[in-house]
Amino acid sequence: QDSESVDPSTESTDTEDNEEQDLGVVEEQRSIILHLLSQLKVGMDLTWVVLPTFILEKRSLLEMYANFMAHPDMFLSITSGSTPEERIVCFVEYYLTAFHEGRKGAVAKKPYNPILGENFCCSWYGSSRLSSQRVTDNSGMGGNSDCHRVCFVAEQVSHHPPVSGLYCECKEKQMCVNTHVWTKSKFMGMSVGVSMVGEGVLYLLEHDEEYVFTLPCTYARSIFTVPWVELGGKVTISCAKSGYSATVTFHTKPFCGGKVHRVTAEAKHNQTGSVVCKAQGEWN
Hints:
mainly beta, single chain, two-stranded parallel sheet
């Protein structure tokens, strides 16, 4: 299924707040978890391990990926940059907003595994200048000529290994993103790690530019008590034509002390080595 077949008149407005109950593990659930963990070994692949439903989210992994586009206004602003330097900075700004919408609660929960051929489609209306809102009907246009529709389509394209294909586009702005992600999860003793293997490519057709980017790892920490989500690793963003690149580092919390959810970013021009942007803060 492609974005051509996503008819906004058949969509329904998303009124789900996706809030999760931020409760600790009750005694009955603790015994189930301990029994499950007793069968696991450090480094074991968890892809096909059957998990109890109380640690699962109410939605599929494909729907969770749609949260990457939760700020369509910032996504649309990328191609509005008048210079390659402005566009790489706008991309970094957008990338730094792409993860916090994925978690509405503090407790880490696993989304449902999509079945082969399963797909999820949604759309937003956004502006590169004005604040935007996720809507699913034509009333979102509001008569604003600078308000454009952003379409998102995700499909589970492989079962062994589990690979998801993601596509997002805005025809009016001549921009689209194509991404493939293989989620590899493993047991790490006190936590669970998930590597998002793959990459995405942002195409800015107006400028004939391609931005290749990677994705961070995800960790579920403190699985014996109240699990919480942490991102970690260094990701890259690069545009071969313009010669600009960026690195975004998600810092994991040190064993003793330190802050959680730290992220730093730096964009530079490769040929001159000049840094055009630095950022730091908390990704969530």
